[in-house]
TrEMBL record:
This is G-protein coupled receptors family 1 profile domain-containing protein. The lineage of its organism: Eukaryota, Metazoa, Chordata, Craniata, Vertebrata. It is found in: Membrane. One of its GO terms (biological process) is phototransduction. It comes from Alosa alosa. The keyword Magnesium does not apply. InterPro entries: GPCR_opsins (IPR050125), GPCR_Rhodpsn (IPR000276), GPCR_Rhodpsn_7TM (IPR017452), Peropsin (IPR002962), Retinal_BS (IPR027430). The chain crosses the membrane at residues 22-46, 58-83, 95-120, 140-162, 182-214, 235-254, 274-297. PANTHER family: OPSIN.
């Protein structure tokens, strides 16, 4: 019993240098903070424009949710473990950590795959793409998450297994088990085929056809072909953004896929632990690309974010109204009356004494309120007709007899 415990403890001790773990933890900290800020901002912007979200942008929101899930479930455990040079948490937490890493990673890849297919449909098959509605987008998003859940639940149900990473301070799929277990080997093959080769092929072919269609449309524009055969600027922008996100994501996950497949199918430990650690850094950086691309390069997202930031700064920097002494209030009232009387001569009336009086009164901020002082408010007046003469006076000055005319 004691020997088994020592073996388990030994599996969760870092196999790279302490300096390497400190660098790993520092990079994870930077990635975690940037990912949390970027994805939360993107989700806030998407919530603000939820009524005007396009169907293709549903996958962007779903991708941000999966990135946020990976950030909240992986980084809080990986960072302190790397700083302490060993896995700090119980073995069940290692299994949960591995499940979340596989599940949210596959969710992101599946969403990107469906997004590339939707872009191909809208650009290359506009007759069908124009019929793609938000309801279809929600169904595909739900299907993407269910597809990822099937492969994430596999190791927990005995099809494959979870275990510590070769570098010791994190957990994922046990990549060495397929050497001795055929069932684990079938899981790794299925995972590599249906969760990497097939999605990457769909993404590559979709954007290849899209780029060819864009090239053909540009040539058609130069030859003055009818507008029905042209690709709109919105479609071109969606294509560019989607290509950028997919390239970033595949660049992040390809090193880890290659390293893990080499470890699973090789007969010896030819992959050093530091290679897994570096590949894991690239994999976790995938949570940064989605908000970075969409918040910087997508005009409507950026415009809405700038507007909200300006409004927030205006509210936070709004100073309180200063208290004006009584003697100053009278002078300022007189200045305000004269200024408005000259400026708004068309809105003034002459009293019986021949002097002009504006229909405005000076209103000062009471103590403890915010805003600008010395603003003028309109004064309600009434025209009194008696016999052949008429005059105007303030409503507040009307007597009981005059109030019947209102």
């Amino acid at each position: 019993m004691g020997n088994a415990s020592e073996v388990v403890i030994g599996l969760y001790v870092s196999t790279i240098s302490k300096e390497g773990d400190y660098i790993l933890a520092s990079i994870y900290t930077i990635f975690g903070v940037m990912s949390l800020m970027g994805n939360s901002t993107l989700l806030f912007v998407a919530y603000r424009k939820k009524s005007s979200l396009k169907p293709a942008e549903f996958f962007v929101v779903s991708l941000s949710f999966s990135d946020m899930g990976m950030t909240l479930t992986l980084f809080p455990f990986a960072i302190p473990s790397a700083f302490n040079h060993r896995w700090l948490f119980p073995e069940p937490m290692c299994m949960i950590y591995a499940f979340c890493g596989v599940f949210f990673g596959l969710c992101s890849l599946t969403n990107l795959t469906v997004l590339s297919w939707v872009c191909w449909l809208k650009v290359c098959c506009p007759n069908y793409g124009s019929k793609f509605s938000p309801r279809h987008a929600r169904m595909l998003v739900l299907g993407s998450w269910c597809y990822a859940l099937i492969f994430a639940v596999g190791p927990a149900s005995g099809w494959g297994a979870f275990g510590p990473e070769p570098y010791g301070t994190a957990c994922c799929i046990n990549w060495h088990l397929p050497r001795t277990d055929l069932l684990a080997m079938s899981y790794i093959i299925s995972l590599f085929l249906f969760c990497y080769i097939v999605p990457c092929s769909i993404i590559f072919l979709s954007y290849l056809f899209i780029l060819l269609a864009v090239r053909g449309a540009r040539q058609a524009v130069q030859q003055h072909v009818s507008p029905q055969n042209k690709i709109t600027n919105t479609q071109t922008l969606i294509v560019k953004l989607s290509v950028a996100v997919c390239i970033g994501f595949l660049t992040a996950w390809t090193p880890y896929a290659l390293v893990s497949m080499l470890a699973a199918f090789s007969s010896t430990d030819v992959v050093p632990p530091i290679a897994f650690a570096v590949a894991a850094i690239f994999a976790k950086s995938s949570t940064l690309y989605n908000p970075l691309v969409y918040l910087i390069f997508k005009p409507n997202f950026r415009k809405l974010l700038c507007r909200d930031a300006t409004l927030c700064c205006h509210v936070m920097c709004h100073c309180e109204c200063p208290v004006v002494p009584d003697s100053t209030q009278k002078d300022s009232c007189e200045v305000s009356r004269r200024h408005q009387g000259l400026k708004e001569d068309g809105n003034s009336t002459r009293l019986s004494n021949g002097l002009q009086e504006t229909h405005s009164a000076c209103r000062h901020c009471p103590e403890g309120t915010t805003g600008r002082c010395l603003n003028a408010t309109p004064l309600r007046t009434a025209r009194i007709i008696a016999d052949s003469a008429n005059r105007e006076m303030a409503v507040s000055e009307l007597s009981n007899d005059h109030s019947d005319f209102l």
